[in-house]
Structure formats: C-alpha cells, structure tokens
Amino acid sequence: MSKSLMGKYLFVLMLALFLVLAACGGDDEEGAEDPEEGSEGTEETEEQEEEEEEEEEAVDPEDQVYDVDDFPLVTSNDGEPIDGGHLNFGLVSDTVFEGTLNYNFYSGNPDAQILQFLDEPLLRMDPDHNYNNEGAATFEADEEEGSITFTIRDDVNWHDGESLTAEDWVYAYEVIGHPEYTGVRYGTVGFTLIEGMQEYHEGEADSISGIEIHDEKSFTINYERLTPSLLSGGIWTYALPKHIFEDIPVAEMEESEYVRENPIGIGPFKVESIVPGESVEYTKNEDYWEGEPNVDGVTLRVINPNVVAQELSTGGVDIVNSFPADQIAENLDMQNVEWLGDIEGSYTYIGFKLGDWDAENGEVNYQGDDMKMGDVELRRAMWYAVDNDRIGENFYNGLRWNATTLITPWHEVYHDESIETPTHDTEEANRILDEAGYEDVTGDGYRETPDGEELVINFASMSGGDSAEPIAQYYIQAWDEVGLNVELIDGRLLEFNQFYDRVGQTGEDDPEIDIYQGAWSVGSDVDPTGLYGRTQIFNFPRYASEENDRLLDEGVSEEAFDLEYRQEVYSEWQELMVEEIPVFPTLYRAALYPANERVTNYDISRYGTEWHEIGVTEEEPVVE
Amino acid sequence: MWKFIVRRLIITMPQLIVLSLVVFILASMMPGDALTGQIDPNISPEAIEQQRERLGLNNPWYIQYGDWVTGVAQGDFGQSYRFKMPVTDLMWDRMVNTFWLSLISVFFIYALGIPMGIISGRWNDKLIDQLITGYTYLGFATPLFIFALVTLWVFGFQFGWFPTGGSVASGLEPGSIEYILSKIHHLLLPGLSIALIGLVGTVQYLRSEIVDTKQKDFIITARAKGAPEQRIYNRHIFRNSVLPIAAFFGYEITMLITGSIFVEQIYSYPGMGALFIESILLRDYAVVTALVLLFGLAAILGALLSDIILSIVDPRIRIK
What we know:
Number of domains of chain B: 2
Radius of gyration of chain B: 24 Å
Strand order of the largest sheet of chain A: 13-17-10-16-14-15
Mean pLDDT of chain A: 85
Distance between the termini of chain B: 7 Å
Shape of chain A: globular
Radius of gyration of chain A: 27 Å
Oligomer: heterodimer
Number of strands of chain A: 19
Structural class of chain A: alpha+beta
CATH class of the largest domain in chain B: Mainly Alpha
Helix content of chain B: over 70%
Number of helices of chain B: 13
Number of strands of chain B: 2
Strand order of the largest sheet of chain B: 1-2
Strand content of chain B: under 5%
CATH topology of the largest domain in chain B: MetI-like fold
C-alpha cells in the first residue's frame, strides 16, 4: 500500500469517526430524572443502533404494532418453586438510590422499590383502588360517626419479633403530624381531616384528640367528615415501630440508622446488608404473617437503563421495576424472558394556559377569553388536528395509544368509554377554525385571530428520551397542516426542571408559554382535584369554573360513598373537560415488565404483586 | 522554593472564594430546585412549600451564600437534600470509591503507556511504532463514553468476565478477603477502559520526546563514545524524555479525586463524577457547590504539584 493511499484511508477513517462523534453529541444532556416519564430517558448505545439497522432488512420488529391486551398479567411458568431459590431484582435507574428506607420518610421512587420487599401497607387494595380487609389489618367505617376503626391481625410482627401494635400505627400519625417532621407526607386528607390534627400539627396539643386506642391491636380515628378519598388511598397505612423510634427526636429520625442502615418493617423479606446506593441483600422473613416466602433471598441491584436489556438476556436479573419504553420494541423477541403487560395509571396531555396563579389568595386566576388560547373552539380544533394513534404506533409500537378522557382506563370503574372525544380529523379542525373566524388574512399560510392579529402559539415541551423531539415536531406539523403557527418556545425542548419552573410549579408562570405537553401519573384515588382544583398549584392550565368546582366537590362528598353516584359525577366531569378543554389527553400508556422464564407466580396486575409467593423453578436463571 | 509554595497557596485562597461565589450564583440561577422532582399529586404542595421554607430555598442567593460560608468555615458543608445526610459524609464515601478507581487507572496508564511510548519512540517508523501510533490516533478519536460502553458490552456481557455495575458484590462482609477481591474485580474493567483511552496522551508525548532527543548532539556524542544502546536509552534519552510526563503527573492526581463522569455513569459506579452529575440534575445544591469547590481545590493543588515535580526532576528549572 503506497503512502498516499494509506493517507486517504486514514482520512476516511477519521471522517467516519468524526461522524460517530457528531451523531452522539446530541445525546449527552440526557438523564434528568422525570417522575412522570419513568426511566424513559435513556441513551441508545452505538451497538444497538447498528443492530437495528441490520434487523431492518429481516423481520423488522421495530415496526410491529402491539396491543397491551396481548400481554399476560401473570407469568405463565406454573412449575413448583424450588426450595432455596434466590431472586435477582433490577432497580432500573441512572442514579443511585437515596437510602431513606422507611415509608414514613422516603420521598423518591427508587427507595419505594426497595421498601416494597421489607415493609407493606397494613391495608390491601382491590383492583378498583379501594381498601379491602385482606391485608395485615382490617377496617370498619362508621359513616354516621365519621370514624373508622382499625384492627390489626394477631400474627403480624416486626422483623425483630416484636408484635405490631395499634400504638405503632398511631405513632406513624403522631410523627408525620409532628411540627418537626422532616418528610413530605403530611398534608393529604388522611391527616388533615382527623379531628384535632391541626392543633397537634401546630404544636398546640400534645396528642391527636381524634385518635382513640382501644387495646393492643385496635384503634379508632375520628374524622371531621368521611370522604371516599380516604378509603381509596387517603388513609396512611404504614406503621412506625414505636419501640425503636421513641427515643429518637422526630427531627433526627430520618437520619437515624433504623432508616438508613438497618431498616425495619413487617414485609416478607428482611434486609441483610446494604451497599449504599448500589444494592440490597434480603433474606426471607420466616415469620411473615401470610406465610414463609418461596425464595430464600432477594438481591436488588441498581441497573443503568443503558444496560438493562443485556442484564436481562444474560440472566443478571430476573425481574426489573421498569423497562425503558423506547427500548421495549427491539427487545420483545428476547428468548429467555416473558413479557407481562398492563395499563398504566398515567397519561400524556397537551395543556392550554388559561390564566395564571394568584399567590396571594392561593388560587387559580382564570382569565378565559383574555388569553391567547381562551377560545374553546381553537382548542377543540387543535385536538382534532392531531393523530395520537399514529404517534403511539410509530414511536411506541402501539404500547401507547390515543387517550380519550382525563380519567384513564386504569380507573376502569370511573373511566367513561362512552364519551365521544375529538379524534384526528383535519377537515373538521379546518371547519371549526373557519367557523370561529380564524382565517388567513395576510396570505402567509397561517391563520390570524378573528380580530385579524397574527397568531403565533408558543409550545413548551420537555426533553428526555429519543422520541421527545420528533413527537414535539409531529404536533407542530399537525397544527401547521390546519394553518396554525405553533413554535417551540425558545426554539428547543426544555429540560425537566426548567420546564416545570416555567409551566408554573412555583406559581410563577412564564407568560410566554401558551400550550405545553406534560404527563401525569395518577394516584389510587380517582379524585382529580389535586391536578384540576381551583386552589391547586399543580393546576397548570390555570383553569377554573363553578361547574368544575361543583363536580370535584361532589366527587369527594359523603354521598359519593354510593358508587353509582360517584361514577355519575366523574362521568359528568370527564364530559365537562371534553367540552371546556383546558387540557386534552393525548396518550394512554401500557407498562411492560420482563421476567426471566424461571420466575413463577409473578403477578403484575394492580396491587396483585405478592412478593412472598414469587418463586423460581430453576437454580440458575435462563440465559438467551 | 518554600517561598514559592507558600505564595502559591496564598493566591489559592482568593481563587477559591471567587470560584465558590461564581458557582453559587450560577447554581441559584439554574431552573428548578431540589424539590422540583416532587411534582406528585400524592404529596401536598403545602408540604413541599414548607420544605422549601425549612431549607431556606426561598431566601435570596446572598443570604443562602452567607449561611453556606458560615457553615463551611466551621467545616460543615451542609446537608444533602436528596440523601438526607451531611455532604461531608456523602463525599467521603464516594471519594474513597473514586480514589481506588482512579488509582487503578493511573497505574494502568503508566504501566502500559510508558513502555508503549518507549517502544514507539525507539523504533520509530517501524511496524510496531505504526501500530502503536495508529492505536493512539484511534484512542484520540474515540470518545471515552463509547469506548466504555463497548468494553462493558464485550467483556461484561458477552464474555461475562467482569461484573457489569456497582463497586462491590452485594451481601459480602466489609473487610473480608472476598470483599476486597470483589472490589478489585469491579474496578478492573472501568479502570482499564479509562486507562486504554487515557494513555494515548502519555504515549504520544513520550514518543515525540524520544524521537526528538534521539537526534540531540549529546546522544550522538554518547554513541560516538561507544556507549551501549541500552544504556543510551535508559540513562540518557529516557530521563530527558520523561519530563513532560512528570509535569503531567500533578494533573493526574487531580483526577484521583474528581473521577470520571462518563465511566462512573456507565458502570453505575458510585464515585465523585457520578455524584456530581446526579446532584446537578436533581438540584442538590449543597452537594454541587461543595463538589465544585473540592474539584477547584484539587485542580489548583494539582497544578502546584506539577510545578514542584518539574522543578525536582529537571534541575534546569528553578522556581524563583
């Protein structure tokens, strides 16, 4: 090879490397932890991209469209669990876990994943999100008196062998309500509605007058009034072992060794050792009230989202807490893993800014018609203009799909399928806009407002994940097709923190933003007040109306204990939201969970996961 | 020389103060704070607001800075919001991890880089030199984070020779032999990844110095005197060529503390680099400011150390 030829080859090589570099440059800013988006924000590695290209010529699983109903809820392996098995659990996260290992103090999701093995709520939930009497404690509500009496089962013990008493449960209320409490759990109806809680919280009383302990195992809480919200997630169902914590001042509990190093609970597994931020080793709790667990131990490891697919295919982990949504399609053909799937309690939506936040009165300042997006016809046309099913199929292989109302099918009792919502229809969108007087007067291809003013709509959308940018661009294009000039605010996607700051999480809304794309995951209680109520700072569209107030109040009133009544109220509310369109939901989601083929009795259905029942049928994980 | 060191250290103080001020102001200008991630309808906004108030996040930055400086002066870097533990304890845990990782990478950089540089310089333009230089070009062009992912994929997953994340296997007794072996096992692959990319600079410097020195008059004189080739290389050329590497050594020491952001992220290795990036993303200001201050201090001391080493190994340089 002559020197000059060698030089040329070298040049080509350098050029190729340069291109690789340039292609990767954009991915660098990844990683903002986004509680709504789960662990979606992952970088695609070079290898994966290359693999994809090769596959395209063959079957192309990339383009296949799936349906969440095709996936089972429980692992199909029905073999007998072996004795002495060991389960490997992957906590998928690009950050380490914080290590606040007590339900009464934790705040981040990674910690909750660790806690689920070692502690558990005393009341269990039905799939329809109501407490039942099958857990470690039972309850009885007295609607006349406005009180609920709790009774703990006799065989429920802490990991150290001490019996779990009524006092332990009440102690959790006393700590969380304490003026010096450092966590974030106070403030929900489960606390504020208790008689005497306010005085106790402000330090005026030494005890909570509304709580009466009857004996070792039972007590009664008197509420100012009962609401259905209490019974679908409002009650605080985690106890705190008084015999361990009583000597520690409330302000220091969170830092104490019983939260950080030697956590304690009543769950099916005990913590054996912790490598801070990295892994937790559990052994089974033979004394667990529902019976001895099927596996001897569990190892939980933090797995970076970049490598979770490899960990699964090499058997490094058996199950994981979540799998990055944009890697699912290319991994569904993994040989040694069974995929389980269910609807997720979350939705993506487009929100319209209809006012701002009145910090003085602590409520939404709805300005309706004065805002750029104030015209409901404009909002409706924008809903008609977008094709969400196409987004779901193209970017998520059908594992996200067109959303209809603001109560997701996850709350199947309340989700009203019969409501007609705008679906993709460009002509209809054009017609609505024409009728409402949005016409292109200047001839630049974009519609002007009915007053003849230029209409530029500023759109805020969040970065994170490979699909964030193309999806935002798709929406802009779809609106462009009906003649609306929508621009990304600042010409780019916003990083998570900046996005919520400008959308208004502190109440200082950025007046530049007209519309935004956000996502919510919803709690067990269907009540949407926290997101759409008049006094809620998280009501980012800043929408309020008397009708809305009325329906939201009725949904949590005492009459709403009647299921039919409550269903009716929320149907009406969903209908109202479709008429008024302060936001419109775009996508519902499925959550998919991979499980190694040796795992048995793994049930991912709502509140159905029983860690003590999960077993493995082979000593070693199945590898691909 | 002592005068010089003392003078340099005195200049360091205002540098650090300016650095901390800049960092603090920039940090407070970043959108969001430690509580932004808590947007969750199950947590009441009042509870979050109370937390903000309690943590002083609602105060203007100069008051926050004042509080912070008062703390630092007493050796208290504040509390990490996210980990609910003192920043000093948190940094200490991570620093130990990073120290070992960096030590092993620096070891590999020199253990592999110096012989490669010598071979390449001694037999320059021979096939072996072309191979080594070719490798260094590739090394310059390959971003560390790609390389680390590839090594992880090949040696961690395909061959399964090395663990694929974390700093130690779970469930081992700290201090036991298994524990230490497991730690080393976890260190090898990330350490090698850093070293294989990091050594290219060393190799190139050394090579060009050797090629340069080979043609100097005193080498020709030595040859003319009939000194054996081995002696010429070991005594005359090597000692003269190693100067820039020695100068670089101080900066390598800096790396011992700051760690590698990419590699630590990819290998889920809980070190300083990973802590830094996480704290920025999650707006854990107390940790960010403390880390930047520490990194700044390490960089300044590293530069000082480089100067001192240089003056020791090279008698021609006299610090005045």
